[in-house]
Structures are given as structure tokens and as C-alpha cells.
Amino acid sequence: MIWALIILLAIVLVVFLLIAGLYNRLVRYRNAANNAWAQVEVQLKRRWDLIPNLVETVKGYAAHERGVFEEVTVARTRAQQAQSPAESAQAEGILGQALGRLFAVAEAYPDLKASENFRELQGQLEGTENQIAVARQTYNDSVLAYNNGVQTFPGAVLAGPFGFRTREFFQVEEQAEREAPHVDFTSAAATQASAAPGPEGPAPTQEPRRESS
Question: For residue 199, what pLDDT is reported?
Fold first, then answer.
């Protein structure tokens, strides 16, 4: 009787340790994903803080481009109001497109492009974009590890009862990724062929001049 009780307690202890180990592993995955998302938010906030100064700088040279400025401002506000990684990814994609149009406006003003303030803001924004890309990749890797732990056995057995749910990825779809540029080489070749000079024919023969007697 005593040995049976000892074996039963040993089995219960082993099961408890397994459950505790699985639970702690899921918690570590979740904490890693939370920390990675916090780093994404830090970089996104830095980007948001740079945008007003950039808009004001461009506005000083192209004040009549009000539509572009309003578009950037509205997109920035929507990005700040996003509540989830999926919403944030969509809003950041729209903001990126608006910023692209803002820089397209700047291309038409050489004095603006030569401005030290503009170049400094542009450099800071480009650096922030790179940091966002790194943070996004780190977050997505963390979410992938977490989701795998939640969806695969034996973690899937504990995920539901302990409140672990799969998380969303942060995937920003840029305009350039949606629409690949199309180059029509056929029309270009036809244009070049029509413009090329034709082959020269044989030189015309001249009749010998007859001498008058």
C-alpha cells in the first residue's frame, strides 16, 4: 500500500513538473514577443516624432502642396491610433506611401534638397526606417516561436486552459511590394528598329560620256 502511494505521488510529481516546464516555456515565449513588440513601438514613435518637423520643412518651400501635407498628417494620426499589430501594419503601410509622395514633392525643389535641415531629417528618417525593419523582423521571429509553442503538442494542450492565444504578425505591405514595375521591352525594341537607318543599296552606275565629233 505504501509503495503504491509512493509511485502515485511520483507520477503526480512528474506530471506537475512537466506541466510547470511547459507553462514556463510558453511564458518565456510570450514575454519575448511582448518585449519585441515594445521595441517596435519605440521605433515607430521615433518615426512619428520626426514627421511633423519634416512636413514643416517641406512646407517652407512648397506651401501650395497642402493635399500632400494633410495626407501625411492624417496617416500619421491613424498610425498612432492603431490598437493591434495588424492594424498598425496597415496604418504604417499607408503612412509610408504618404511619405513617399512627400519626398516626391521635395524632388522638385533643388533648394529644399540642398537644405541642411531637410537632409538631416531625411537621414534620421531613413535610419529609423532601418531600425523599424530590424525590430519588425525580431518581433515576427518571436511571434513565430510563440505561436509554434501554442499550436504544437504538448503546448497546445495547456495553451487554452492557461489563456495562451496565437498572436498577430507585424507585416507592412508597401506599395512597391504590391505593384512590381512592368517594363515593355517589345515596344522599346520596335521604336529602336524604326529609328535605325536602312541598309544602303548599291551605288548607281553612271553612263560613259560621249564625245562629240
Answer: 47
